[in-house]
Amino acid sequence: MATRRPPALSETDKAYIKEAYExxxxxxxxxxHLNKAKSTVGQxxxxxxxxxxxxxxxxxxxxxxxxxxxRISALRLDVIGIAEHDAAEIRxxxxxxxxxxxxxxxxxxxxxxxxxxxIPPNDKRSNxxxxxxxxxxxxxxxxxxxxxQTAEVDSVMDKLINGxxxxxNNEGEQE
Length: 175
Prior knowledge:
Elements: H1 11-23, H2 27-34, H3 38-47, H4 55-95, E1 100-105, E2 111-116, H5 121-141, E3 144-145, E4 148-149, H6 151-174
Antiparallel strand pairs: 1-2, 3-4
C-alpha cells in the first residue's frame, strides 16, 4: 500500500509560507491564503523546522498570566487592608476607647456574643496566624522573574509577614 503524499508546494508558496511564518501568521491563515489544506502547510512547516504556536494560544496564555497577577495583587492589598484594620481595632481596645466583641461558646453548644474590656489572646492569635498564612500563600503564588520575586513583592510581603509575626510574638509575651 503506497503512502499518500500531500500535493507539492510551489517555490512561491514556500517563500510565502516563510514570510508569513516570520510575521507570526498561523498555519490556518497561511493555508487559507494559499487555498491549501491546513495539514499540507503544517506538515511542510514542521519538516522545514518551523515550529509554530497558535497566536490565539499565546494571547490566551498571556491573558491568563495577567489576570492571575491581578488577582494576586488584589489579594495582597486585601491582606494589608485587613491587617491594618485589625491593628487599628486592637489599638482602640488597648486604649480603652472601644470594647472587644467575641463569641463565647458554652459546653452545651450555645454561642453568646460578649463585650470584653480586654482582648482574649486566642482571638488575636488566630487572626494573626490566619493572616500570616494568607500572606505566605500569596508570597508563594507571586509572579516570578528569572527565578526570583521582584524586589517590590519581597519588600511588601516581608514587611507584612514580619509585622504579623511581631504582633503574634508580642501577644505571647504579654500573657
